[in-house]
Design goal:
Blueprint (H helix, E strand, L loop, with lengths): L1 H32 L11 E6 L2 E4 L10 E5 L7 E7 L6 E12 L11 E5 L1 E6 L1 E7 L2 E4 L10 E5 L7 E6 L7 E5 L1 E6 L10 E6 L1 E6 L1 E7 L2 E3 L6 E2 L3 E3 L10 E5 L3 E2 L3 E4 L4 E6 L2 E2 L4 E6 L2 E4 L1
Parallel strand pairs: 1-6, 2-7, 8-14, 9-15, 16-25, 17-26
Antiparallel strand pairs: 1-3, 4-5, 5-7, 8-10, 11-13, 12-15, 16-19, 18-21, 20-23, 22-26, 23-24
């Protein structure tokens, strides 16, 4: 009976040893085949970050192949390959991305055994800064639009082969001032619009129209006192050229004198019209006034 128990213990121990050996061999085989990676169960955190870069537009691609390990490290015997995928040609912004593969000493891909985080960088291309100005101009009112097509590049440089064109839209016809507005467009040697590669600042000149001088002369009149109003509605322009061609002036007279004395023969109202529109504000109206005298 005692002998049977000893045999049972020996048999049980042998089976346990065989099972343990079988498990160890299976794990080794799975690791060798890359099916089971024990590293996966360790705290193998690895953080890589692509670097960022920026520049002003120069017609060439912006590339930055640099990167950093910001946390963690490779296990002993492991190495990795890092490919950088990021390019920015035109003005704007895009990601600088990484593709990472980690290998063990036997060349097996063990990337999955790491808690891997990849942080992209940023590639930024800024526009070229230009300052463009338009010219100013002043004149007396003549009923015609005041324009000045003069523009110039004050600061900044165009890329080789690029051309700056300014479309001037500023106009000032009536008395007053306004900006000499324009639109700046940049084209390349093939005529393509590349304005988006530039940040254009505008400095508008000023278009100013000064009022025209109009002088009106009124007539004189005199008489002996007779109890009736004395008037003289006669008026003239000092020069017909004072009035813009195609415009007309209306002078409302009405000054009168009944009692003895003298008064200036001043118009009650002067209005200048152009096609029915009141343009009196475009004139400075002066007078050479006659006199009404009752003796």
């Amino acid at each position: 009976m005692k002998s049977s128990k000893i045999k049972c213990v020996i048999l049980t121990a042998g089976c346990a040893s065989f099972l343990f050996a079988t498990v160890i061999a299976t794990i080794f085989l799975l690791v060798h085949l890359g099916v089971f990676l024990p590293d996966k169960f360790e705290n193998n955190q690895l953080v890589l970050m692509a670097r960022s870069a920026e520049k002003k537009y120069d017609g060439k691609e912006l590339i930055c192949d640099e990167w950093d390990i910001v946390k963690g490290d490779l296990m002993e015997g492991h190495h990795m390959t890092v490919d950088v995928f990021g390019r920015q040609l035109a003005v704007g912004q895009s990601s600088n991305r990484l593709h990472v593969c980690i290998f063990d000493r036997d060349g097996r891909d063990v990337t999955a055994s790491y808690d891997l985080t990849v942080i992209p960088g940023t590639l930024t291309v800024f526009p070229i800064e230009l300052l463009v100005v338009s010219e100013s101009k002043t004149k007396n009112y003549d009923g015609m639009p005041l324009e000045n097509s003069g523009t110039r590049l004050m600061s900044g440089n165009l890329m080789k082969g690029d051309t700056l064109t300014c479309i001037v839209t500023g106009k000032q016809t009536d008395v007053g001032s306004s900006s000499n507005t324009f639109l700046a467009i940049v084209t390349d040697e093939n005529g393509n619009d590349v304005t988006s590669n530039y940040r254009i600042a505008y400095d508008y000149g000023e278009l100013s129209v000064r009022p025209r001088v109009l002088c009106i002369t009124t007539g004189n009149a005199s008489k002996e006192y007779d109890g009736k109003p004395l008037t003289n509605d006669v008026w003239t322009l000092d020069s017909p050229d004072q009035l813009v061609q195609g415009q007309r002036v209306e002078v409302k007279m009405g000054m009168q004198l009944t009692a003895r004395g003298s008064v200036e023969n001043r118009p009650l109202k002067v209005t200048v019209y152009e096609n029915g529109r009141d343009v009196s504000f475009c004139y400075v109206i002066t007078f050479r006034l006659g006199t009404l005298t009752v003796k």
